[in-house]
Design a protein that fits this description.
262 residues; Rossmann fold; 7-stranded parallel beta sheet; 7 strands
C-alpha cells in the first residue's frame, strides 16, 4: 500500500528507535523521508538503507536556526513538505521533583515541548500549501501518572499544543494529532537489563511495544485514511491505561471464561 507516494515527511529524532521505525514505515509506503537527529553516523546508516528518497540532516530541535535550516533543505531538495513527525524529546531530569531547579525545568520543556513547537512553526507555511499534517509522539505519561513528573508535564503540554493547533489551522486543511506510546523497546533501555521484562507484566496484552507498533499508528494518522481526524490523541499502549495487567485473569480467575487456546 503506497499511501504516501509523491509526499514528503520530515521525522525528528529519526536515527534509532521510534523515529527510525516511523521513517522506515513511511518510506515503505512511498514517502520521501527527511531524517533529522544529532547522531550523524546512525542517520547516515539509515539513509543508506532507505536509498535515494532519504535525506539525512543533523538537527537539534532546541535550535531554531537548525530547525529552519532543516525545513528549508527539505523543500529545496523535494519541493514540498507534507508530513511532520515530532518525535524528538526525552526524559532528561532525574532529580526528585522537590529538588528540580528552574534550569532543569526549562531544559526539559525546551527539548520536549518547545522543540515540537519550533518544528511546527517552521513547517507550517509548507504544510498549509500541501494541506499536510503533523503527528507528534507524546506518551502515556501525558495522560496518567507513571512517574517522571517533568517529562510527563512536557508530554501533556504536547497534547494541549496539538489540540490548539488543530483548532486554529483546521480551516486551512492542516491536521494535528498525537500518538501516545506506552513502553517501547528502544536503545534507551539497553543499559537496564531486565527492566523491559518487568514492565511487560503491567500490560494487559502481555508485552511491551515495538517501534513498528508506533510507526503503524503514525502512518495511519498521517495518511488520507485519517483525513477527518484532527486534534486527537491515539494511545498505543498495550492496554496499560485500562488498568494493571497483574490482575488475575487466568481461566481459573474470577473475571475470565475458560476459552480454549487458539
Amino acid at each position: 500500500m503506497q499511501r504516501f507516494e509523491g509526499r514528503v515527511a520530515l521525522v525528528t529524532a529519526a536515527a534509532q528507535g521510534i523515529g527510525a521505525g516511523v521513517a522506515r514505515r513511511l518510506a515503505a509506503e512511498g514517502a520521501a523521508v527527511v531524517l533529522t537527529d544529532l547522531q550523524e553516523d546512525k542517520l547516515a546508516e539509515l539513509a543508506t538503507e532507505l536509498g535515494d528518497r532519504a535525506l539525512p540532516i543533523t538537527m537539534d530541535v532546541t535550535s531554531r536556526e537548525d530547525v529552519d535550516a532543516a525545513v528549508a533543505a527539505t523543500v529545496e531538495r523535494f519541493g514540498r513538505l507534507d508530513v511532520l513527525v515530532n518525535n524528538a524529546g526525552g526524559c532528561i531530569v532525574t532529580t526528585v521533583p522537590e529538588d528540580v531547579t528552574s534550569e532543569e525545568w526549562h531544559a526539559q520543556l525546551d527539548l520536549t515541548l518547545v522543540g515540537a513547537s519550533r518544528c511546527i512553526q517552521a513547517s507550517l507555511p509548507h504544510l498549509v500549501k500541501s494541506r499536510g499534517n503533523v503527528v507528534t509522539i507524546s506518551s502515556v505519561n501525558g495522560l496518567a501518572a507513571f512517574g517522571n513528573l517533568e517529562y510527563s508535564a512536557a508530554k501533556a503540554g504536547q497534547i494541549a499544543l496539538t489540540v490548539n493547533y488543530a483548532a486554529r489551522y483546521g480551516n486551512l486543511g492542516v491536521r494535528f494529532n498525537i500518538v501516545a506510546p506506552g513502553t517501547i523497546r528502544t536503545p534507551n533501555w539497553d543499559n537496564q537489563p531486565g527492566t523491559l521484562e518487568r514492565f511487560a507484566k503491567m500490560y494487559p496484552l502481555g508485552r511491551i511495544g515495538e517501534p513498528e507498533d508506533i510507526a503503524a499508528a503514525v502512518a495511519f494518522l498521517a495518511s488520507d485514511d485519517a483525513s477527518w481526524i484532527t486534534g486527537h490523541t491515539l494511545p498505543v499502549e498495550g492496554g496499560v491505561l485500562t488498568g494493571p495487567g497483574a490482575v488475575d485473569l487466568t481461566p481459573s480467575g474470577p473475571f475470565r471464561k475458560d476459552y480454549p487456546e487458539v
